[in-house]
Write a structure and sequence with these properties.
Elements lengths: L5 E6 L3 H6 L7 E5 L9 H10 L1 H4 L5 E6 L7 H8 L6 E4 L5 H17 L8 E6 L2 H5 L1 H5 L5 E6 L1 H8 L11 H13 L3 E4 L8 H14 L3 E4 L5 H7 L4 H18 L6 E4 L2 E4 H25 L1
Parallel strand pairs: 1-2, 1-8, 2-3, 3-4, 4-5, 5-6, 6-7, 7-8
Antiparallel strand pairs: 9-10
Length: 297
């Protein structure tokens, strides 16, 4: 699975921010053509995004582009402008139905063929940020093999629900949980919603840890200061790594090798599900280490 601990957004029409993007330690940098770009700047943003795909990824980050949703009638123009070598994924804003994903899949296939890119090389990331989008999260996630991740978008979701967005997030709980479960059911990565009070460091870390316990493996970020804590929180801790290594070693030597389905480790019972969880932690560590090595190399 791709590493997506930190998904940082950069306005596609902001030259200064784009030029600085290679220096950011985010796993994914998303050049935005949607909400952070005013209507009069859309054409400029498309051109600047296309011209800076490779620059943005030159620091080792994976490059995505967020496009406007189909209802705006701008999606096709967005895609025609930015699907070129250097692009790893498209984030579809306000995805509400599986047909939105199927239409995007078809268009990406066409553009890849026309431009000599490997078929299927551009992934799809879905933004679930309306009531309809949340309810249809799972069928949308399974509508194309390109889909690798789902993002819960709390700002537009609360607007659609006609409720106030709060840092505590009580009004987001159902949708936030639902998207995380839908992503896991579809074999995708769940990306948590932005935390808009970016100066509240303590609140951000608390919220991010809560999201991780819901099943989120990364977060959509709006400020550079959020990148480091996101990378840290979504990486296995030293304690988790030590525990996982111990569990795997004991279960394989004392359990599997002796035909037993459960063993004891540090006073607790370890059975197959616990063993599998420990192996997942170690696999995640390997994927992160490989990604970080590639970025630094």
């Amino acid at each position: 699975m791709p590493v997506m601990r930190s998904v940082f957004y950069v306005p596609g029409n902001n030259e200064s921010f784009i030029q600085k993007s290679p220096s950011l330690p985010a796993d994914i940098i998303t050049l935005d053509l949607e909400d952070s770009v005013p209507p009069a700047e859309k054409a400029k943003a498309r051109e600047m995004t296309r011209d800076n795909l490779k620059l943005t990824g030159s620091g080792g980050s994976t490059v995505y582009v967020r496009v406007n949703n189909w209802e705006t009638l701008m999606t096709n123009d967005d895609l025609e402008a930015v699907v070129y070598p250097g692009l790893s994924g498209i984030c579809l804003a306000k995805c509400g139905h599986p047909d939105d994903v199927k239409r995007l899949d078809w268009k990406l296939d066409e553009l890849e063929r026309r431009r000599g890119m490997p078929i299927g090389s551009v992934a799809i990331q879905i933004l679930c940020e309306t009531a309809k989008g949340v309810i249809n999260a799972y069928p949308s996630a399974t509508a194309s093999k390109r889909v690798n991740s789902l993002i819960f978008g709390a700002v537009d979701y609360t607007k659609d629900m006609r409720v106030k967005l709060t840092s505590e997030g009580v009004e987001q709980f159902y949708a936030r949980s639902h998207v995380a479960v839908a992503a896991r059911a579809a074999g995708c990565i769940a990306i948590d919603c932005p935390y808009v009070a970016f100066q509240d460091v303590e609140g951000y870390e608390k919220s991010t840890r809560e999201g991780r316990q819901m099943g989120y493996e990364g977060r959509m970020l709006i400020h550079p200061s959020q990148i480091e804590p996101s990378n840290r929180i979504y990486s296995p801790s030293a304690e988790d790594a030590e525990w996982a290594k111990g569990v795997v070693e004991v279960f394989e030597k004392e359990g599997i090798a002796k035909g037993m389905a459960a063993v004891s480790f540090k006073g607790k019972m370890v059975d197959t599900p616990v063993y599998d969880n420990a192996r997942t932690i170690l696999k995640t560590m390997e994927e992160i280490a490989a990604f970080d090595k590639k970025r630094k190399g």
